[in-house]
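Worked example 2:
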Amino acid sequence: MYETVQAVLNSEQKTDLQQLINSLKASGKNYFLRNEILQTFADYCQESEKPNYFYHSSSLGQLVNYTHEIILEDNYIWFLVRPRIASQQVWRISPDLSNWEQEEQKVLLDLRDRLVNSYQPRILELDFAPFYENSPVVNDARNIGQGLAVWHRHLHSQITTNPNYWLESLWEILQRHQYDDIPLLINEQIKSGTELLAQVKQALNLISERPANEPYEKFNSELQALGFEPGWGNTASRVRETFALFQRLIDNPDPAILEAFVARIPSVFRVVLISVHGWVGQEEVLGRPETAGQVVYVLNQARNLENRLTEEIKQAGLECLGIKPQVTILTRLIPNCEGTKCNLRLEKITDTENAWILRVPFREFNSKVTQNWIRKFEIWPYLETFALDAEQELLQEMGGKPNLIIGNYSDGNLVAFLLASRLKVTQCNIAHSLEKPKYLFSNLYWQDLEEEYHFSAQFTADLISMNAADFIITSSFQEIVGTPDTIGQYESYNCFTMPHLYHVVHGVNLFSPKFNVVVPGVDEKFFFPYNQTENRSNEITKKIKELLFISEDSQVLGHLENADKQPIFALAPINSIKNLAGLAECFGMSKELQERCNLILVTSKLHSYEANNPEEAREIERLHEIIQQYQLYGCIRWLGMRLPNAELGEVYRSIADAQGIFVHFARFEAFGMTILEAMISGLPTFATQFGGALEIIQDGESGFLINPTDLLGTAEKIVNFLDRCTENSQYWEQLSEKAIQRVRNEFNWELHTTKVLSIAKISQFWNYISRDSKEALQRYLEALFFLIYKPRAEIILEQHQKR
């Protein structure tokens, strides 16, 4: 970047830069974001008749395209430059452009405080960088999110550097393995790593001639005499393979061998999935609109984790001990459950043997609040006591400590931290959606937003849990570090200010191996291709098609003048981020779309009086206003109702029967489960380019990426698709089939759960080897919890008590 800056200053482009800055000043503003900067530069290039290459390829063009913020002060001009992913630089420039200096990024925090008249000469600084100094790191930013491979390579290097130390460490790890009081793998007869290796060689000789399929029970007593307990395999061939892997790991270590060996170690039996606020139930109550995707995710993960753990326990030869996996979804019990089962303490998860929803109530600080559902922004005062109560309930139901705790969303991740730190077990975090990057300037103006959103508690909780986690699961690479043009969700936590509260100078280490991209799958029991007719119900299909296109209902708005037009379908909760009103406006602005298509919307509500919060009410009203403004009543159907999964899957397929399309018009989407559901159903899908769809859809091949801020451009892209379908009668089917195969091949729950358990096991290995280094971090996190988070949560509680 230094060379680019110098090239601008030492050429006639310096004059162009001065003109650009003058254009920005003319707006009367002093803070500019990337889109504003790029637009101003594009306008300048056009007005000054610059050649085409100048915008992208000139030194100034490169500088501007790398710039994400420009701040104008009387004394200086500040550039926040991002020359590559996960790397940001701050440059301070004199007004006459004669002097450029690179500053530490934290200097920008004081400047931002000054912009909102909140500067303090002394403020608390949070810095997590020292806690990662001796940890392995990802060396290439392109490999961020592949932490499992980094751990394997790092542990492999330790084996090769100090094999004796590693052998003894491995013995210590294995001799600690047990299920409750049942010893696994090795017993007290084996006194050291050296003795373990010698006994493995004897065990291999002992079983070398046994038939491959001979059950473990036939020779377990002979292995036990050598110091080995169950867990090595269920047949002679499986036991031989595991012993051979161990021997090869010591004699000729390789990362692939380490991965294969660790994956076979039985160390995860009880798993807790935490989804606190999500109105968690099955079929008739899959979350509130704001959490429906999360609840579906957690239920599918629970079912598939149980399946994977059952198979692993069987292959390890532990069925003979009566060991079975236990998977528990921990959530809150809601007394006023509105006719659902959310007031039941225990509910078995369908299609499982031993997976349950365990509901624990919030303590009754204020029964008007805690007896009812609480929106996700208000839940913070109740999480500490919930964690304490849930700990006792979990131990009682599971009969012992869990081996793995997985948090979901900010509140679930904080509870995961509280439980994992007390129980000394492995902690995994899944954000699903981090609110900070979704609400522009939410940290800078947190005090103005505090009454409605309470971001001070939430962002502090995020910092605590993401640094406490042993590993973090994301659904996409960009969720961590974005794209060359956009900052990632986790990246946004690396350096930011909360004026009058604290500065975060190093909030999270993006290069830590704790970050792992593990994509979810789709529940093909409900969501499957439209042409898989043998699995479809004629009765449900008829009901859904009448609901979508024909029947009158109090929960349906709009009558279609021509129900045979191709449908444009969207399914989402009503909020400004999901942007259904933007899609309606896009449709309303395009006469050609209205002539050729109908717009079908499915949400959970139809009227503002049904809204749970002011934002939802505003967005419902905006959608009604747009329908009225563009007079869309003859070509729009808006269903405001909750549908069970069996019917929801049929909605996608019914739209596909009519050769329709699915549009996901969100301003930002961390991943997008509905995108997967639409694609597996066979719907050509148009999805926002801002977020996880970038890694789901191959643009132009298995779907299309759209810019939801460009309404006319999106309409044109859809019209172009319709034209191609008219020109080529096979085009719709071809794209449909590519969408189906894309999901089936790359996004399935079997791959997901296998990888999650592999990461959990290797992180257990790593935590044992580096166990001394986490104590200082734990103390730091506890200080943040008690000194910052808890006082912020108590303020919210005081507000609730006044209601």
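The two ends are 54 Å apart (CA to CA). The first strand starts at residue 31 and ends at 33.
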